[in-house]
Design a protein that fits this description.
The protein is α+β, with helices and mostly antiparallel strands. About 55% of the residues lie in helices and about 20% in strands. Keywords: Chaperone, Cytoplasm, Stress response.
């Protein structure tokens, strides 16, 4: 069976080999590989540049978050300051009016604290906890040992994290 019998058309085998040799020549393969390499290098550079841009944007976002994190809190505190300023401008004030004004201002401040997750550490009568309390002294007492007897300065938590421990005096057993 020759090439003519197969399809009833003559086939020029030299044409077939010449087409294959132009696409499979080492030069063509090299050129194709160089193109693919250049394309891959361009993709790598693009991905690298995009990663660098993301890193820079992240740094900028973190800086902005740090810079303006206290903006809302500061705005809320301004109303407390305004109340204090108003109290100082009252000309015919007496002790009772000042006391009432301070109490109202304290309520404003407590509301701001609650809004931003600042809570007072309950200490008086509690068992001493070194994670939340700082003992200034120990006093002999009829109370059980390590019970908080007095609070010298209130402690505070910010979202369950101690930002200032309570300064306390703690009971100890009487020595005989």
């Amino acid at each position: 069976m020759n090439a003519e019998d197969k399809n009833n058309t003559p086939i020029d085998e030299s044409e077939n080999h010449s087409d294959q040799s132009t696409t499979d020549s080492p030069e063509d393969k090299l050129k194709l590989l160089e193109e693919k390499l250049a394309e891959a290098e361009a993709q790598v550079l693009y991905v690298k540049a995009e990663g660098e841009n993301i890193r820079k944007r992240s740094i900028e976002d973190i800086d902005k978050a740090r810079k303006f994190a206290l903006e809302r809190f500061s705005g809320e505190l301004l109303s407390v300051k305004d109340s204090l300023d108003a109290a100082l401008t009252v000309e015919n004030a007496n002790l009772e009016s000042y006391k009432n004004g301070v109490e109202l201002t304290q309520k404003q401040l407590i509301n701001v604290f609650e809004k931003f997750g600042i809570n007072e550490i309950k200490a008086l009568g509690e068992k001493f906890d070194p994670n939340q309390h700082q003992a200034i002294s120990m006093v002999e007492s009829e109370e059980e040992p390590n019970k908080i007897l007095t609070v010298l300065q209130k402690g505070y938590l910010l979202n369950e994290r101690v930002i200032r421990p309570a300064l306390v005096t703690v009971s100890k057993t009487k020595s005989t």
